[in-house]
Write a structure and sequence with these properties.
This is Probable phosphoketolase. The protein is an alpha/beta fold. The chain contains 25 helices and 22 strands. The chain has a six-stranded parallel sheet, with helices on both faces. It has a five-stranded parallel sheet with strand order 1-2-3-5-4, with helices on both faces. Strands 18-20-19-21-22 form a five-stranded mixed sheet, with helices on both faces. The N and C termini lie far apart (74 Å).
């Protein structure tokens, strides 16, 4: 709806309008200069081809709209003393955000060589999308940014994540109309059903409809206004429209829209916080319609540009070679009247900066965009409180994630006052056995409730929505603004956020090289309901490949752990929750599994990352083993120990070493990953020339890829998931993928020199059991008694 003149705040004075327009024109000038110029930044001489970059990169089309939003945010932040953050969804609008950062001074404070004068302006221009310079996106290098926007769809969920547990913060989120077409963005509109007006901040979406993507019209921009209003109202928002192409009119309308939206936000929060209102509010959203490439060339080479898809990137593409393009570029730059905006030294004139807030209120200086500055240590209790008793290996069983849930309950309770820890997941907290947390915090929920509902809480800090994208976006926004969290997910479906975590890892890798960016809490995944115990859901739920994707990424930023029991899961979780600037992937089962290590042993083993379980093998200390049985993952560990037990019984003379790997990156060379082993360490653990039978949780080729440079690689034989699955018994899953204990014994016999003949009868017995297994489960529907009732007797 347009702003009602009867209810609208007082309009801009002519002086305010002039200063806002001056700031906007200055930002537009700086944005164009970054795309095109490498010299003559103030046009103190006629523009020549050599002043123009040889490669023109960047995106103009969205920049004037972003500059408009930034200018008007400056006004309201200063006038209202707002604590504010902005998420710039059109990440290609880097020139705009960089321009505004330079104008407000935060860019010079961050990068002192980019001074706020003609020389600094020249450096600002030249470095943009230039070798050795800065990217064209709103990247980690950009002060005030927590959202790069390389891949579209996540701006709004990041904004809500930033607002959670930040009751004094207003997060504006500019959503491009191209981004608005993505599935993740569509789902994230529902975040307002989880935003608590008492304990959380506010999100003000600005849907920027400039009409076009790279080459096509955008869906929402072509909807009739009434239909778009119906859509936004259906999402629970109250739309405010700003439409136009005449700058003065748009400035007045945008100022009124901002004031109206912020007044409504203040009224919503006041009603909830002071008057006890519990009805879910309708939050405002601003719909901004301005031309794509606004104020740029109207026509180039006889074709319309401004207001069309041709304005998306570089409207004048042949400036160095085409004199007419050069003339148009100079006319375009001079249309902003730079002599009115910058003094003779190139510094912004006072009227340009009249709307800019001071200090940390500037969008480029807010500590919320450098969340490590606000981060506090998580109060993690001693692990011994939750440890399961292990008098001897394999004598008891626990559900590892249920044990972890007790730890998370206490973390949630101990952060109740400071509210800086959240657990997110797609409707699976209880399914993943973490429901103990409900004793400390319910599930965030602002929509209608029924009597049959459980654990819903208007102020809850457990977040569940059946959109992995939204969960990931919430948590990323939360972490990037200085808080802690954990993402619990079914292993097979975490793939949905493959590209999202890719963007986050790239962000972390870049920020590690920026000394002004303080480290943030790690992004922690708990992947459970995993491949080997999805026998009830079947093939569609069986995929352990997320770790393959993660281990392709920057080694300094990624960690992958396979704790084999409850105590090792506690130890790994403690480490992950304490860590900074990592993506930690922890794969652990929720079904009952054997307890192998005491808490003290688990801590040592997890710190080592990989080690010999001497109690499980049959090595004689005086000689090398004949074979190494290695394992990573809870089910592979059980199968390896069962195989070791069979070998002890049937081939007692064989020297067997059992190696368990918790930290999978330990297999990599030390030059390739910080956790990798030297060749000396690796050969000491796995030997250089003895057969290694490796039972791995996921796809077997990952182990080969990690270890391919090792001396003993040709002796390495890996068993893992081979994309064979169905609804079947738990043991049949491992048999179908040749990961079972009997197959592992057969592998030992096949690969240890001399055993093939000497142990032929043993091998045949192993094969017979596998055949009997197939017949038994088809008749009885359950696993063989010797499997179902197996226990470690070492």
């Amino acid at each position: 709806m347009p702003v009602d003149p009867q209810q609208a705040p007082a309009g801009l004075t002519d002086e305010e309008l002039a200063t806002l327009d001056a700031h906007w024109r200055a930002a537009n000038y700086l944005a164009v200069g970054q795309i095109y110029l490498m010299a003559n930044p103030l046009l103190t001489e006629p523009l020549r081809p050599e002043h123009v970059k040889p490669r023109l990169l960047g995106h103009w089309g969205t920049s004037p709209g972003l500059n408009l939003v930034h200018t008007h945010l400056n006004r309201v932040i200063k006038a209202r003393d707002l604590d504010a953050l902005c998420i710039w969804g059109p990440g290609h609008g880097g020139p705009a955000v960089l321009a505004n950062s330079w104008l407000e001074g935060t860019y010079t404070e961050t990068y002192p060589d980019i001074t706020r004068d003609a020389q600094g302006m020249g450096r600002l221009f030249k470095q943009f999308s230039f070798p050795g310079g800065v990217p064209s996106h709103v990247a980690p290098e950009t002060p005030g940014s927590i959202h790069e926007g390389g891949e579209l769809g996540y701006a709004l969920s990041h904004a809500y994540g930033a607002a959670l547990d930040n009751p004094g913060l207003v997060v504006t989120c500019v959503i491009g109309d191209g981004e608005a077409e993505t599935g993740p963005l569509a789902a994230s509109w529902h975040s307002n059903k989880f935003l608590d007006p008492v304990c959380d901040g506010a999100v003000l979406p600005v849907l920027h409809l400039n009409g076009y993507k790279i080459a096509n019209p955008t869906v929402l921009a072509r909807l009739p206004e009434a239909e778009l209003d119906d859509l936004l109202k259906g999402y629970g928002h109250d739309p405010i429209h700003v439409t136009g192409d005449e700058p003065a009119a748009v400035h007045r309308a945008m100022a009124a829209a901002m004031d109206t939206a912020l007044d409504r936000i203040a009224a919503i929060q006041r009603a909830a916080r002071e008057e006890g209102a519990t009805e879910r509010p309708r939050w405002p959203v601003i719909v901004l319609r301005t031309p794509k490439g606004w104020t740029g060339p109207a026509e180039v080479d006889g074709l319309p540009v401004e207001g069309t898809w041709r304005a998306h990137q570089v409207p004048l593409a042949a400036v160095r070679d085409n004199p007419e393009h050069l003339r148009q570029l100079e006319a375009w730059l001079r249309s902003y009247r730079p002599e009115e905006l910058f003094d003779e030294h190139g510094a912004p004139r006072p009227e340009v900066l009249a709307c800019v807030p001071l200090g940390a209120r500037r969008l480029g200086a807010t500590p919320h965009a450098n969340g490590g500055l606000l981060l506090r240590e998580l109060p993690l209790p001693p692990l011994e409180k939750y440890a399961v008793e292990v008098d001897k290996p394999g004598a008891s069983m626990h559900e590892p994630t249920r044990v972890l849930g007790e730890l998370l309950e206490d973390v949630m309770a101990s952060t109740a006052g400071r509210r800086d820890f959240r657990l997110v997941g797609p409707d699976e907290t209880a399914s993943n056995r973490l429901q103990a947390v409900y004793a400390a915090s319910g599930k965030a929920w602002q929509a209608r409730t029924l009597d049959v509902d459980e654990h819903l809480d208007r102020h809850g800090r457990v977040m569940e929505i059946l959109s992995e994208h939204t969960c990931q976006g919430w948590l990323e926004g939360y972490l990037l603004t200085g808080r802690h969290g954990l993402f619990s997910c079914y292993e097979a479906f975490v793939h949905i956020v493959d590209s999202m975590v890719n963007q986050h890892i790239k962000w972390l890798r870049t920020t590690r090289r920026l000394t002004w960016r303080a480290p943030i809490a790690s992004l922690n995944y708990l992947l459970t309901s995993h491949v080997w115990r999805q026998d009830h859901n079947g093939f569609s739920h069986q995929d352990p490949g997320f770790v393959d994707h993660i281990l392709n990424k920057s080694p300094e930023a990624v960690r992958v752990y396979f704790p084999p029991d409850a105590n090792t899961l506690l130890s790994v979780a403690d480490h992950a929750l304490r860590s900074r600037d990592y993506v930690n992937v922890v794969v652990a089962g929720k079904q009952p599994c054997f307890d192998w290590l005491s808490m003290e042993q688990a801590k040592v083993h997890c710190a080592r990352g990989a080690g010999v379980w001497d109690w499980a093998g049959t090595e004689d200390g005086g000689r090398e083993p004949d074979v190494v049985l290695a394992c990573a993952g809870d089910v592979p560990t059980q199968e390896v120990l069962a195989a070791a037990q069979l070998l002890r019984r049937h081939l007692p003379e064989l020297a067997v070493r059992v190696v368990n790997v918790v930290d999978i990156a330990r297999l990599m060379p030390s030059e390739e990953h910080p956790h990798g082993m030297t060749d000396f360490e690796y050969n000491g653990l796995f030997t250089a020339d003895k057969p290694v039978i490796f039972a791995y949780h996921g796809y077997p080729w990952l182990i080969h890829r990690l270890a391919y440079r090792r001396t003993g690689h040709r002796h390495l034989h890996v068993r893992g998931y081979k994309e064979i699955g169905t609804t079947t018994t738990p043991f049949d899953m491992v048999v179908g993928n040749d990961l079972d204990r009997y197959r592992l014994v057969m592998d030992v016999i096949d690969r240890v020199p001399g055993l093939a003949v000497r142990a032929a009868a043993v091998r045949q017995r192993m094969e017979d059991v596998r055949l009997r297994h197939h017949e038994y489960i088809r008749e009885h529907g359950v696993d063989l008694p010797e499997v179902a009732d197996w226990s470690w007797d070492g």
